[in-house]
């Protein structure tokens, strides 16, 4: 339970406002406990990230780099978009990851002290890209947890040389996004770890770089040269470097005459080696000093992360560890660590943690010595500290603050003021933040501002209007190549949006602010809630009927792929924006309750209907008196384009299709007069087009005469192309050889030979395998009206267009 006012204030700011928060506090003030409780209770959609694999495992989250797919090197600020494409787009985000980011309410960054400024700016750029590019961190609420007086970010000299022109500091507060984010700082002050007032005072002086001579002398009284503790006392040696810790552990292990046992971890799925919580091959002996690296999950709570003990015996699946002060040894079994990833549940649309991999091992590590870095977050009853070789900001403070009391602290070398390294930038930042600690009145105002911001977002139609305006512009600029009812429908919505609804929203929000200024926060302001209910009901009913239904009914068609893609993108965004707003208006017909509003908004965002890749083929889309002919011509054109692997507009443009269906040309001369059709088109496709017109005129009983043969040219006619291909085939050449010799596509040669199959001059078996003939024949017999595309798709593209065409020709010849 929340037990002090700072924790309660932090809890309320996180849950009931959208303020970005830096939650800090001395070692042992309950930051980790707060995080774990927040994960289980908060109603906001939460993702927890941390700068390292071990920190992420401990926090029950994922690493910053894996979630945001950021590079490990320096991330330079964006310069005219060049840096964006190279660094942040090296790994494309999946749609599910983008959906997670877009529906996120709260991002928690644990161990923020180790996060570099450029990494925080990298997070900002990803969030802006997929959410709101005008707001810091894309409008996601940030909770940054950590103690700046503890371990600092690591940066190589060569990386700092690259980043120096852009940053005054590499601590997270040097981030450009952080400086725009209006962050509040809440410091947890009650220390749960230590109760000795003198020791707490000394630790505070070290934190603030104000260590007095008197306090230094008190500390140095704990210096005991050649200190040799009893084994059962359970002292752990904290050193500044890995090599020193490894050397001490190895030396102590070699002193033991007992047999060495090796326990190999079981690693399943994806679990990076750098995130292993203990050794994969754990080598232990009876008598070895060990430290627990995980809290006991059983109701007995026999051990915790950081507890020291000694190996007493090994059973088949259990290691017995005796700890100082315990009457009985602790039976230790293998425990499981999970490597998590966040996923979106497709059915419920909830953000869920998915186990990506696991690590099964005894929760122990050799612990005569560990590094100060690895001790962060742990608590020890007794420790021997060698901090004289401290080389980085915060190391001495971290080491000393691991101890619960002065009595359990031994210095292996005397401390000097040189060993207390504190960064002046950190002290300056902490001082500024301390002067800006929020109070209850700030919470109340922030809560009201958050509720008003949600209403502003809901009733603001500017984002919808922008996408609408862009779609109308596309339609206007490409009026000649876009068919359908879309221009008329969007034009009507655009006028209503600009002239009626946007002014109405502005007027309503002025009323909202006036009413909000007179009383309680929005949720408890009855008069304001009544206005919200009425407005939500009006907007929901009106825009669902007049805008959503109009958008769903509207359709367009174009053979310009760039125009189609751009227009579909705009329509998708409009549908998405409207879908989310309608869901929220529907909810707010009963008033605004933030705890209900956020989940509804997130789920609506994830369930917005997708814009169809292909427009509707309804005949009403075609601006012609003969839509059926338009569809026949269009189908013929598209099949021919697919067969030749060329864009459809290279055969006939949309404008030409409309011209043909409007004019109904009866011969090649009339066909040439259609806008968009030239001599080359008539020569290549004229006969086929005129035949389609003739068939349509006959079926529709139109009294027009169509001459399907092209009018003869004045020059001597050439030998038909299909006859040349036929002669070459009769000479024994294969289809491939003929295609190469004539510089034509194989499908074209197949089409030539199909004509001679239909006349009976060629046997089908000379060109198509009998097994293929049977399969195609059976399908065509059952589906006689199928197009080439239909046949090929139904048979899993197992046959070429040419093979299908030749079987069709053979069936016609047999009739």
TrEMBL record:
Q: Which Pfam families does this entry report, sorted A to Z?
A: HRDC (PF00570), HTH_40 (PF14493), PIF1 (PF05970)
Q: Which GO BP terms sit in this record?
A: DNA repair; telomere maintenance
Q: Which GO-annotated molecular functions does the record name?
A: DNA helicase activity; nucleic acid binding; nucleotide binding
* Limits of the HRDC domain: 623-703
The family database entries (InterPro entries) matched by this protein are listed as: AAA+_ATPase, DNA_helicase_pif1-like_DEAD, Helicase_HTH, HRDC-like_sf, HRDC_dom, HRDC_dom_sf, P-loop_NTPase, PIF1_helicase
What the entry lists under Gene3D superfamilies is as follows: 2.30.30.940, HRDC domain, P-loop containing nucleotide triphosphate hydrolases
Kindly provide the name given to this protein in its UniProt entry: HRDC domain-containing protein
Native organism is Mangrovibacterium marinum
